């Protein structure tokens, strides 16, 4: 019998009383591996009110106590890395090494959270007027919520709750119903690290449960990562409820290749960045823009892509795993067909791939289109699979214009040996995360994850200093102490300088 996935309420892993479940289906075998409850309103309400109580005492807990939990937590994630990575691989399908990478990128945020005493510092100015000082504090905002996607079951929850909690908040996590087990194991370790009960709660479900969180008056801020339509919905509903929200959504990331770039480095970068994790990465390169004679790399690139081998998570020779669901696989296949019908040149077709030991796995092999035009669906839509579209342009300017006209702005990169080309690209590109000879420029957690335009709704980005700002409110205090008993006139107007 498949396992019923538990919620985390008040430090206990408990079964929901809901009779409505979503099946977790292994992307590798097609078997049901878990049943995720769509929790009841009363259960969600209980999770929020317990989180609120936990926040009330946590916000006043000394900052070093809060920080020490993060030190311990980081160590526990590292100690339990193999177990965490296998839980992650089994539910998500990605290879064991890729699952470890997912977790590494997550615990780096925990490491950043260990800088909380510095990150939480406010500002001070003495003598804003004579003997009047102004200073600011960053204070927690209360209960925050996170709604996370299937593709990074470790990293994305860890982008959120460690920073929210270290800065004094409580956090409700609603992980993707396709991959809740990694979040549960991460929460178990968080409790083991000494986190008080109720600070981190895990609830389960889909739209209905997310709506319950969005409309709950005690939840003050929402971090969302997922698809554009859902992100737009969550951002709109949260902000219509006058709450704070950040929504990190879809992408179409271009790699622009100048004719002077090193061919082998370009090919390796393109293969890894387009096919890694089966293309199910919001920073995957899904479009190559080849400038002028850079198109000469195409035959060698295709040869290299033909050698990429999908396989099971525990197969050491596998380069990537299956697609998350049958439905997602069918969507990718239909977009590939769409590309053929629109006249793009399908030079490598990954449809119909069979892997003998796993006949029910959601396989798609490496797929490449050349002769892609910007009005085609395969160019306009996020495909979220191992599909690379190749476009050709005549100049850097033309490439810049093409990328800047795409609706998404998550990540991009340029490969070149020219400092002048790289500098022009960096300056003029309207994309928030730029790589120069780096194919997937995901910033480490002391920076923020700065997607732009159609890839992000909100103003404060995830993690880094902006993450701390997102999860805190600034309180500014202006104070004056009377040293002597001087008589003063009543002030009816602002004066330029309040000196005596
Ligand atoms: P998704 O939008 O289907 O689901 C994300 C979360 O939203 C899940 O927890 C899900 O239960 C919930 N959800 C689904 N439908 C909902 C609805 N109608 N109302 C409220 N909540 C709902 O996304 P996914 O398929 O899990 O993830 C893939 C997407 O995530 C891709 O578009 C990818 O680009 C994006 N992504 C973006 C980033 C980024 O940093 N920009 C990072 C990772 C993934």
Give the class from helix and strand content and strand pairing: alpha/beta
The count of strands amounts to: 23
Global geometry:
globular
Strand order of the largest sheet: 15-16-17-14-13-19-20
Cα end-to-end separation: 79 Å
Low-confidence stretches: none
| Rg, Cα atoms, Å | 25 Å
Number of helices: 16
Could you characterize the architecture of this molecule?
This protein is α/β, with parallel strands linked by helices and 500 residues long. Helix content is 37%, strand content 22%. The protein is built from 16 helices and 23 strands. It has helices at residues 41-58, 63-79, 81-92, 96-113, 116-119, 155-166, 180-192, 207-214, 228-240, 263-275, 298-306, 326-341, 377-380, 396-405, 419-428, 464-470; strands spanning 3-4, 7-9, 12-14, 21-25, 32-37, 124-129, 132-140, 143-147, 170-174, 200-202, 219-225, 244-248, 253-257, 285-291, 345-348, 367-370, 387-393, 408-409, 412-415, 434-436, 452-453, 456-457, 472-480. Strands 15-16-17-14-13-19-20 form a 7-stranded mixed beta sheet, with helices on both faces. Strand 11, helix 9 (228-240) and strand 12 (244-248) form a beta-alpha-beta unit. Helix 3 packs across helix 4 (96-113). The longest helix has 18 residues, at 41-58. The radius of gyration is 25 Å and the shape is globular. The structure holds nicotinamide-adenine-dinucleotide. Nicotinamide-adenine-dinucleotide (NAD) is lined by residues 147-152, 174, 176-177, 206-207, 210, 225-227, 230, 233-234, 248-251, 282, 382, 384, 410, 449, 451, 455.
